[in-house]
Design goal:
The protein has one helix and eleven strands. The chain is mainly beta and 213 residues long. The protein has a single domain, classed as Lipoprotein localisation LolA/LolB/LppX (outer membrane lipoprotein receptor (LolB), chain A, Clam). The structure holds 2-acetamido-2-deoxy-beta-D-glucopyranose (4 copies). One 2-acetamido-2-deoxy-beta-D-glucopyranose binds next to loops. The site of one 2-acetamido-2-deoxy-beta-D-glucopyranose has 2 residues, from loops.
Length: 213
Amino acid sequence: MYAAVTLFVFMCLTATAHADHHQPCHSPNMTGFMSVVSFKGDVKAYGAFTYDSMGKKLRFRSNESHPSNGSLGLDLLMFFEEGILYEIDSKNQSCEKKTLHCNMHPLDIPDDATFLSTLHSGSSSIEGEGLKVSVWTGSLPDKKGHYSMSVTMRCLPVAALYFTESASLIISNIDVEVEIKDPDLLVVPSFCLGQPLEETPEGTVNSFLSEFM
Ligand SMILES: *[C@@H]1O[C@H](CO)[C@@H](O)[C@H](O)[C@H]1NC(C)=O
Ligand SMILES: *[C@@H]1O[C@H](CO)[C@@H](O)[C@H](O)[C@H]1NC(C)=O
Ligand SMILES: *[C@@H]1O[C@H](CO)[C@@H](O)[C@H](O)[C@H]1NC(C)=O
Ligand SMILES: *[C@@H]1O[C@H](CO)[C@@H](O)[C@H](O)[C@H]1NC(C)=O
């Protein structure tokens, strides 16, 4: 996990801008693990994700056997198309249904991202000892910060960095597979059905990132 983080920070330092007309790619269906770490070093969450790229659905559950700060039992189900977010408590069989205000998340490059560079980390000449990635950047909504994302040539997200004045996050993906292993994880649990939509307090923006920042 930390190796991936170090790798990505290094890539950000060495990436140089090229004039290019690339279109951001979109990642496929995926299952994998994700770590969310702050720049201060707090592990915010580590756990399994399931992503449906066409239906634009994401499930992320923190793994309780990994140390983290403040996100034990975090279980998110997000429907980006519908703009709905569920915070699920399986132990408790309860859930909160909220409006999702922002579609940005670390598994998909926003359509308006700017291509920065393609680069080879590790070795480009020794087979199996290098990773070729493309790096994309852009502003966070409301322009309160910016992001940088790297993906493999098949558009598998490697890492994303989010910088704001108040907090910064490094999100890395590990052991990604290009299939949905358990489609049930993308279905609203029965105990959440009929849950009323919670009112959002004035000034609150619900998003994937706001769960950690
Ligand atoms: C992705 O997963 C969804 C839901 O299981 C499925 O409907 C869709 O066909 C899958 N897409 C691909 C390209 O496999
Ligand atoms: C949690 O992590 C352990 C150890 O890495 C792993 O065996 C287990 O499958 C994980 N559980 C989930 C739900 O991801
Ligand atoms: C979690 O964060 C709080 C506040 O930032 C800190 O006081 C505490 O030591 C942290 N705990 C762990 C296990 O990192
Ligand atoms: C169960 O859910 C309620 C809210 O519905 C919450 O106040 C309570 O803390 C939860 N209990 C546990 C053990 O998570």
